[in-house]
Amino acid sequence: MLNSIPTGLDALAQNAHAGQWSLDDDIDWDQDIRVPRWLPRRLAVSLVSQFLYGEHATLEVCERLRKTLGGDVSKACLGFQIADERRHAQAYTRYLERLGDVARPDPAMAAAVAAMDEWDGPVEGYLAAYHILLEGEALRSIEGIADVLPCGLFRAIGRRVAVDEARHVAFGRLLLIERLPRLALDERRQIYRWVRHLWRDGAGRTLDEFRVPGVMTRGLRQRWLEEGWQRHRRSLMDVGLLAPEEVAKMEAA
After folding, report:
1. How does DSSP classify residue 5?
2. 178-191: per-residue pLDDT in tens?
């Protein structure tokens, strides 16, 4: 049972319970689809499709984590997240039906998800990869794609999804803060190297292969990549994966 005065994970679980929303009642599906003339419809389809595949990938890892992690409240939070991810996938599927097509997974994204699935280190690595890196990036991407795809219906979906994703990131942060002190320094270094590789390889290939015409030059893409890693690196230090001096050593190596 959750505490009467909830804090930390207890509060997050209660917020998740209160924050469940209805696909039919909380989204106005009568809104028209709006795709800018300069944006090819196939590219809009591909952009939204990658969100769909990201939801599926996160759903699968949450189901694995729920079987692995101990603690009733952690399992409750993951249960709510599983419900969230399913609802997000349904929302993107319905939107894509309105667009008239579904694209295949971007090769770079598919390779990154496959690399995540091959992780055989501490379970905290999954939390860092999915709840810090992937979910954190999803939050930023929702805002960025909404600028590229100024569609009221997509933005309405994005607002709902963003609230859930922020809660998922908070869950990962809280759990990592609790669990990381139990790991040896070598294990935490292993997680850091792996997450850094995921970002630089996966995000770098995505930028090279998945471009929106006229939006990013090569220099801007490289700056986006580096600024993104700096942001994720700060998040990893904030949850206690490594101290700043350890990060500096690893970045200099």
Report:
1. S
2. 999 999 999 999 99
Token pair of 48 as six digits: 């939204």
Superfamily of domain 8-183: Ribonucleotide Reductase, subunit A (1.10.620.20)
Which amino acid is residue 34, in one-letter code?
R
- 185-188: long-range contacts at Cβ-Cβ below 8 A with a sequence spacing of 24 or more? 185/246, 187/121, 187/122, 187/124, 188/241, 188/242
Euclidean distance between CA atoms 244 and 226, whole angstroms: 17
Per-residue pLDDT, 210? 52
The residues, ordered by sequence, that sit 6+ positions from 80 with a Cβ below 8 Å of its Cβ are 13, 16, 17, 20
Whether 221 has a pLDDT exceeding 80, the answer reads: no
Interatomic CA distance for residues 50 and 113, integer angstroms: 12
**Integer Cα distance of 242 and 226 in angstroms:** 19
